[in-house]
Amino acid sequence: MENLSGPEKSSAEGYRPTYIRPPGLEFAMGIALFAMVLLVFLLLQAAVFFRAIIVRTPEFANSSFSIQWLDDPVFQARMSELAFNGDIVASEALWSGGICTALILLTVWLWKRGHTRSFLGLRMARPRQFLIWMGIFLLLAIAIEALSFISPSFSTDFMEKILGSTTNMTLLVIGVGLLGPLFEEFLLRGLLYGSIRHLADEHVTVALTAGVFTLMHQQYEPAVILLILPMGIVLGYARARTGSIWVPVLLHVVNNIVSLVVP
Hints:
The protein is built from 10 helices and no strands. It is mostly helical. The chain has one domain (20-261). The chain has helices at 23-56, 73-82, 86-112, 116-120, 127-150, 158-164, 169-196, 202-215, 222-242, 246-261.
């Protein structure tokens, strides 16, 4: 979808993807694929989470999972207790992120074939582009940290809960620091971005993907969620202006790893 020698052009400049199928059909196929991958992701996370509860709870250890357990007070209490357990969160990110990233690559290849590289933005950006967007993202991170320092409503202890309950820091870094961001970028700035670009221009596409990115981070407090939106916008424009998904992937990975090292 991009001009491989430079940044992506917007629809306003006369750019349209050139595929055999109509743009509307390509968009619909992409959104259906996005919904399917997201559903698999949620099911995998739920499966890992429920299995972890069963293993850690003697009352359920020798039983097969039943949907009725969701109404059981004991099971509900364990869900609340273990929701921010670092080892479980790392396992969720590891399994769901790894499997669903591979699923995106496979299904997009079956769909786009020769256009897979341009559709997902798999071209490598120039070093200067990485540095420019790293600087922009750093300025945004400083602004967000300043807001959280000024007003407690913009701060969160989510990562402190994760770090305080983990027993395997390596697994946490691989799951939350690497595979989690990789999956989110391939899902949002890859699959969803490419699908929307069949019908919308650069700015609308960035706005929509940033909105979905924000909605996917409901684990934070409402005020903190508002700070996720500008991060999504910067990641979206990094994808659009460089034509490479690896720029937002790197920014996202750095952000998550720094959050693990300096909560």
